[in-house]
Structures are given as structure tokens and as C-alpha cells.
Amino acid sequence: MGNSSEVSLSAGQCAYVPTGGMLPEGADAVVMVEYSERLGQEVAVYAPAAPGQGVVRPDENIRPGDAVACRGTCLRPQEIGALAAAGICSVPVYKPFRVTLISTGDELVAPADSPKLGQVRDVNRYALAALARRNGFAVVRAVTLPDVEPLLEQTVRQSLLDSDLIAVSGGSSQGEQDKTHAVLDRVGAPGVFTHGLALKPGKPTILGLDSASNTLLAGLPGHPVSAMMVFDLLFCWLTRRKTGQPEPPCFPAMLTANVPASPGKTTCQMVKLRQADEGYLAEPVYGKSGLITTLTRADGYLMIERNREGLAGGTQVLVHPFSGGDFYG
Predict the structure, then answer these.
(1) pTM value?
(2) Which of 15, 16, 41, 166 is 20 to 30 Å apart from 291, CA to CA?
């Protein structure tokens, strides 16, 4: 093992070769030792052998000119192994998008706390951080802030120094305490360029930019389902697009019930996938956008295009698995 073979074979001869050893000159096949028996100076072979059997040629794994990994390839353990086999010790990679997540609301308390009347546990800070990490983001910070405009502005300004994306959940609507638009527009230059999307869930989304720091600014809805869907549809998609990664595969399925759409908006309908004899069935999962369990009960979603009244049961649809999800993994 680990040395060149100095043995040369001719017809009617054989030699013992350990697994991974070099074949002697003149040999072109290997029979496992379990199928042989040594009889004095001879060897009885009890299994047929064809040329190339049990042999790995020098160019069989990777040939000169073969692409080991192309742009957009996620370096899984198997790609790391292939690079090592080709003697490639370093490759250019994309730096993860750095994201700051700010969850806002006077009503928010930590998950370990017992909410008082009028309070709720903070879902977005933890759910969005997990979603971001699962899709390759580097979470610089994830914080919870009360509805104090100067404090929010200070945190956003500080985050411009080390973040590619600042996403504020909550405060994106038109209420008296909804100050996200004003803060992002004041901090960024040119500031906010969109307030509102023709999307359900996710209508009150805010989008902006600070050109000086090259930082994207986003105001996400406060409801967990809306916040996570907008982050998935916009920013998880953006990272895949910028790094050349393919989109997750969609599943063709038959809708099991009628689904209404929201007039004038593209509608994301959560569904549960179920295997049937004829293929996948997509069962609608109904629930308010403020209830995180609406997502935990679903495998993915289908998109109903704008200005459609809805979809009838029995319609063939494409189901998008949640970004980074396990259903198709």
C-alpha cells in the first residue's frame, strides 16, 4: 500500500493486491479474496472477472478539464471531498450576507417570561434569526426594542457599520407607534423607496437603501407569518440569486379544497403536502398571520397570482417548500 507495484503478470497468473493498492503491470481485473482459495503455489478463483472489474482507473474519478464545483454550488461534505481528491486546497466563496434583526414592540417579552395582560412573547427575533442562519446569513445581532424612536434610530445607525441588511419587524403599518418608515427614511440615503407590497401576507413591508454603507433596509410586518414569508420571498431569494444558487424544487400537487385570494394582491396560501397514489395532494392550512403555528402546520405554500379570485379544489398547483426546509431534503 502506498507504493508502486514492481510485479508484472502474464496470462494465467495472479497476485494479491490490498484494497487501494496499485495493480501490477498486465493485470486488468480484481476478484475479491473471499472468492478465491490458495492451493499450494496455485490459487483457485471461484468467480468470473471481466476487464475493469474491481478497478478504479486513474481518470475515472475526475478527468483533466472536469468541473469539480461550479458557481453557486453549496459546499457539502461530498464537494469538499471531491476538491480534496483533485488537490484543490482553496476556492473562492461568497461571504455570507450580514444581517441585523430588530424586533420592536412595547408588548414584547422574552420567551422565558410570563406575559402579563397585553403582552406577548417575542417570536420574530428568534424565528427570523433561525430562518436567516438556515439560509446562509450571518446574524450580526438580533435584538428586541420597545417602541422608542430614538433607540430604534440609534440601533439602526450602529448597524449600518457592520450589516448588509437591517430588518426591523413591527412598526411598519400606519399606527401612532409605527415609526419604522420614518427611522429608515431618515437614516438611509436615498432612504425608503417602497412602503407596501401587493402581497398577502406582507402588505405593510418597507424597503429602503443606504448607498453610503451599501446596506439594504427593510421594515417587516410584526405578525410572525407575514414577517417570515416576506423575509423568505425577498431576502432568501436575493441571496440565492446573487450567489448563483438554484431555486428549491417545487412540487406539483392537486389542491384538495377551494382557496380564496385577496383582491389586488398576490396571495401566498400555506399548504400541507400529503402523498397519494396519484401524486401529492396540497391541503390548505388556514390561520391568521399573527399565529406562528400557521407555519408549523405547513410544508410550504402556493402562489395565487394577482387579480385572481382564487383556486378551485382539484386544480393542479406548484407548491414551494419553505426556504431551507426539510421536506425535500
Answers:
(1) 0.85
(2) 166
